[in-house]
UniProtKB/TrEMBL annotation:
Annotated PROSITE patterns: PROKAR_LIPOPROTEIN
Domain of life: Bacteria
InterPro entries reported in the protein's UniProt record: 6-blade_b-propeller_TolB-like, WD40
Entry keywords, A to Z: Membrane, Transmembrane, Transmembrane helix
Similarity comment: family membership: Belongs to the TolB family.
Transmembrane segments: 20-41
Protein name, as recorded: WD-40 repeat-containing protein
Pfam families: PD40
Gene3D superfamilies assigned: TolB, C-terminal domain
Amino acid sequence: MLKTTVLKPTVNIRRLNSTVPIIMLSMLAVLTGCQTVPTALSKAPSAMAMNNPLTIGMPAIDRQGYIAYVEEQGVGTAKISTLYRIRPDGSGLQLIDQLNGYIYAPTWSADGQMLAYSKQAARQHPKIYIYDVKSSSHNLVVNVEGSNLSPSFSPDGKKLLYSSTVGGNADIYEMQLSDGSTKQLTTLPSTEVQPSYASDGQSFVYTSDKVRAGRPSIYRYSFATGNAALITTGGYAASPQLSLDSQRLAYLNGRKAAVMMLTTGQVINLAETGLDEPARLSPSGQYALYPTRQSNLGGQVGGQSSQSGGSLVIHSLAGNTSYAISSKTGGVVRSPIWGR
C-alpha cells in the first residue's frame, strides 16, 4: 500500500560574510512505511529569494528550474536512498523516489519535464527509470542484466544514452524511447561510461580508460563519423557535462569538482568535495553546482560544517561567490543536476 508524504522544509539564511550566505534546509517529514511521490510541493518563504544574493541576479532559465539530487541515509543493507528536487533558492522541495538501496546519477530532459536515473535494490542490478513531472509517474525503461547507469536524454527527448555491462564490458548504448530499440555505440575492451549529449545532438562526451586501465579520460564522440576525440585535461578526468553552448565542460578533475573553458583550456577547480563528485552546470552555464560534506564556499575548502549531513553548493562562475543548501537530516548528498 502506498502512502503520500508531503515534505515541509524550513529554510534559514545565515550570512557567513557580506557576500556569501548559507541556506540550511531541514526536512521535517518522518518517512515511514512505503513512500511515494507527494501530491503537493512545499511553498517557499516569500522573502527568501529577495534575501539570496545569487538567485536575485540569476537568469530566469536557472532561477525557475529545479535541482534534482540524491540523499543517502545509513550504510550497507540499511542504506536508504531518496531522490529529491528543489528550487535553487531552497524552496519547492519534493520527494520523487525512495528505496532501500541505491539511486544513481539523475539527469533532466532538455525541457525539464522528465528525469532519468538508475536505482538498485538489494541483490538486483541497476535499472534505469524515467520520472514524468506532469503525471508523477515512474517508468522502467532499461532492465537488462548488468549495470545500467548514467542515462542522458537527447535534446529532443526522444532518445536516451546510457552505459551498460550487458555485453560483458561497460559500453555506451543509445535507446529510442518510442519503441525501446537500442544501438551499441562503443565496442572497445576498455571501460566506456558516463555519456552526456551535447545540446545540438550531434555528439556526446563520455569517460573511457582505453589508454590506461583505471586512469580515465574524457572523449567526445561524433555521431556523424562514429569516432571519438580526446578532450585534453592533463590527468584523471571523469563524469563530463557540456554547457548548452558547448563552451564549458563540467567534470571531476582528480578529486576536485571542476569546470573547463574549452576555448582556452582554463580550468576552475571549485573544491575537493570529499565525495569524488563532479561539478554540474546550470542551464545558463553561468553557475556551477556540486555536493560536499564540508562548507566549501568561494572556491575554498573550509572546515567541517557546523550542521550534520551534506550540502549542495551553488557557485557563480562570473562573480566567484557561493552559497550552500544544506540538509539537517544527516544524510550524504550526491549527484545533483540542474534542469529547467
